[in-house]
Amino acid sequence: MIQTKGLLHIGMPVVNTKETIKWYCDYMGFELVYETVYTGHEIAENVAFIRKDGVTYELYEFLGGKEREEVIASPKLIDHIAYEVEDVESAYAEAKRLGLNIKKEIQDLPFWENGCRYFMVTTANGDTVEYMQML
Asked: What are the tens digits of pLDDT across the range 74-87?
């Protein structure tokens, strides 16, 4: 079993980050806690994290490419659910030992104050679960 510290965030691709932030903050009482433009993938993304009552959403808007067109044509409601882990290397080793379907190997991101590291697996249903270590 992969040991987690709890739910970290729920990832949601969006058509327009600014409008989505405004909607959740104005109508649901969420607070914007982090925002950036990330250029480390093939397609740049607007990325924002909003939070309320211990629930955090990661909102991300692809700024081009087929991914943007797919979100516009058929938006997903939830892309992934992320759990926080103490040690991403140990969690990754356990996922491999368990024979989990690794969707994405360990990645580094410059998000938050000190960055973070994560990997993703898919469930038997095809859902994506992310395990992230905040650095």
From this structure: 877 788 989 999 99
Radius of gyration of the chain, Cα coordinates, nearest whole angstrom:
15
Q: Quick one: DSSP state of residue 72?
A: H
What count of other Cβ atoms lies within 10 Å of the Cβ of residue 6?
A: 8
| DSSP-based three-state secondary structure for 110 | coil
| Residue 10 bridge partners (DSSP) | 57, 81
User: What's this model's pTM, rounded to 2 decimal places?
Assistant: 0.73
pLDDT of residue 125: 65
Question: How many Å apart are CA 127 and CA 30, to the nearest integer?
Answer: 25
Compute the distance between CA of residue 35 and CA of residue 41 in angstroms, rounded to an integer: 16
Tokens of 75: 């938006």
Give the 3-state secondary structure of residue 10.
strand
What are the beta bridge partners of residue 32? 50
